[in-house]
């Protein structure tokens, strides 16, 4: 049977999932193997060297750089506060001495006799890493962080805006085809993860930000709306550091596009559950997609046990597997793989490509390049 | 073996050459064999690059690609231990193995110099020429406050830093000041805690000790000769060599599997763009021509040029056809892209299509509309990348001009672009959208619209993106590299003949007479017209052009010229649309002209496409 590799987005009812939570620089790990952690619990922390402020002492008190070390009233390593006297010139015959005070607090790191520059290092900046995923500490990486493991429902989206957020899953749309409009959001959704259906409108996102929802997840959005929300045109899909007041995840793509059945139904099953979401997306080497992690409770564990379905081997495109078409003219349509001819075919564009047949849910069959489908894994 | 030196090999004993290029997503392998005394590229294979989990070993992808080549060639290239067999013996092994790499994002550098237009520009040229992506340039006059510069250095995670500034014997203060900014910023490298950030100092040699004193043991400082020893001259080679050495010793050594790959290779592994620049320089030098090469990828577009022996390279980091397609549209604007589209399209839908391509970068156009639109985007990406290249490739700035009475009325200043389309002899395109266009007329058309060549320019494309391999090979075996470049690497598309001068509606542009074995034509070109004449691959013809006043083929306005043109898969293209190329403002007139060009160049001939939909 013909097979090909085509990575897809993961939509899993129940999976043993682990999150690696690592500090950017070495520090202290606050938990140990076997500990149970909650999503917002701090598991590791460290201090980054503080911000640096260069002060050109030579210019400020009008002396030659070589005279700076002799004019300093503080030494390397001294801690100073804003307003402290830093340097005093010798003046002329002891008169007309110029002085300078520190504008900010910190520690003197260096005094240069070549440039007349003094480097002031600010207080160390704390960096804390939260657990993000509720679960058990499986591994401690000394001075770096931890690996947390638990059984969860796990879903990936296609693009996110904003970073990590936490909240209860709540629905604003009744079905996957319903667009998420501003009128569907209300005050009761503050701090929650709001699930829509098809396209989230720009007004709905604005309303969500006003209310203070933790995150909004829906099928698609319009490029124009995204531009307005961000205030600029997103040039490359590397996101996660935006601060728009909430986290956004689209599960399918841009345009009027409904959320995939499977995604909508899985989220519906987990309505009311506590979840962690992360909008961070990086579509470059080392691809990262936005995700939702929903820990399983006892009830869902027993339900999931009976409902679990054997998934296809990950990443393998073969006859019978569920796929989503990800390029026009059939963008967004779902179906399963039919025939997979091995020979190259000429497309309408004139290019030659390896193709496959997709049997749509309507029963219609379409031929598309293999590069234009993605697996719906789960 | 010392990984950074080339093995001493007798070129006459080399019959089978294996070369790989480890790209971010694909590892490409080619086999070059000596057939009847000539080197020819015979087989190629590719496999996904494996620097990331689960394999996390670049050699896995190399072995897979090489195995594919071996299977196609009927030659056993990999032994039982998974290593490349050398030397060649009958149907087994190869004589040398060489490689380039841009996996894991290639070489990412930060450069610092005192004055943006002078030492910082020289440092940037050295870094780009070595094949690096320059993430940022810090300089004393970059309009950022010192603490902002420090913050920027802290945010970046470069693989190495190049610091320049001051002429030898000149002022020391400013370059030491830069060192004092970089040192406390403690830039974090991409490769974790044990990696010591390599810093290359290539500034005022008399400030060497002071710069060394500014840094502590957290960095690996290397001092090389000044990139700008005097204002009038650049000396980039020592800095470029140091970058290549540090790339191998530090950056590559920290990437998964590279130590093994380095030990396999018979020549130092080069960053891919560095190797492309190398082969283009070799060709331009040997043939005595001015050449321009472009490689348009998914995320970036590289432009290489050699004009009057001076090599320049630029990387437009966010101009590409998939990952960066949205950025191309944001930079160029949709109306500029749509001026190359002769079909009716809905702007809102197009904007969503662009974003969908960005988030699913591996998809390919299935419909003709999608292809037309992607090629329109490519024209703008190439045009913008070329503008950036022209702005960067200039004569040295800051050089004192000596003027005589004869120069009274000339206002030539330093820092002018050395890129001159009229002097350009050879334009080579590579990268998916150019190399894999369904017909080569489309490739030629995209290149002409984006680069606007003037006078007579030969157009070619890199058949299978072989230039990186040949760039490394040129260092070990120049003869083999040149033979393969000429015979197998380039596919000649033909020649473009176009005058400089603005489009004037309804006016005659030039008259032409073509004489050749298979092509004999004469006629008049009206402004805005294009004409395509078939001229077979190995054919040549002589064209005499007589431009009207205001149009120039290189000899001056209205002056007659004669060129020998070479044929190719497309042929001879006469372009009377004017330079710079400005499309008519009137929408209907523009659409009529555009449709005329599409038809004349036979860009989208009727094809018997597959039946895309049929009922069950």
Topology:
The complex is a heterodimer of chains A (378) and B (616).
Chain A: E1 3-5, E2 9-22, E3 28-29, E4 36-37, E5 42-48, E6 52-56, H1 57-60, H2 68-71, E7 79-80, E8 85-88, E9 99-101, E10 106-111, E11 117-121, E12 125-130, E13 135-141, E14 145-156, E15 159-161, E16 164-171, E17 193-195, E18 199-200, H3 202-211, E19 215-221, H4 223-230, E20 238-239, E21 247-254, H5 261-269, E22 274-278, E23 281-282, E24 291-295, H6 298-307, E25 316-318, E26 322-325, E27 334-337, E28 345-346, E29 352-353, E30 355-360, E31 365-369, E32 373-377
Parallel strand pairs in A: 2-32, 16-17, 17-19, 18-19, 19-21
Antiparallel strand pairs in A: 1-25, 2-14, 3-5, 4-13, 5-12, 6-11, 7-10, 8-9, 10-11, 13-14, 14-24, 15-21, 16-22, 20-23, 22-24, 26-27, 26-32, 27-30, 28-29, 30-31
Chain B: E1 16-22, E2 26-35, E3 38-48, H1 58-73, E4 96-101, E5 107-113, H2 119-129, E6 132-139, H3 146-155, E7 160-163, H4 173-185, E8 197-201, H5 208-214, E9 219-223, H6 237-251, H7 258-264, E10 270-271, H8 272-287, E11 291-296, E12 301-307, E13 310-316, H9 325-332, H10 334-338, H11 347-359, H12 368-392, E14 426-430, H13 432-435, H14 440-451, E15 455-462, H15 467-476, H16 478-489, E16 490-498, E17 508-516, E18 520-526, E19 530-533, E20 540-547, E21 561-566, E22 571-575, H17 587-600, E23 613-614
Parallel strand pairs in B: 1-4, 4-10, 5-6, 5-7, 7-8, 8-9, 11-14, 14-15, 16-22
Antiparallel strand pairs in B: 1-2, 2-3, 11-12, 12-13, 15-16, 17-18, 17-20, 19-22, 20-21
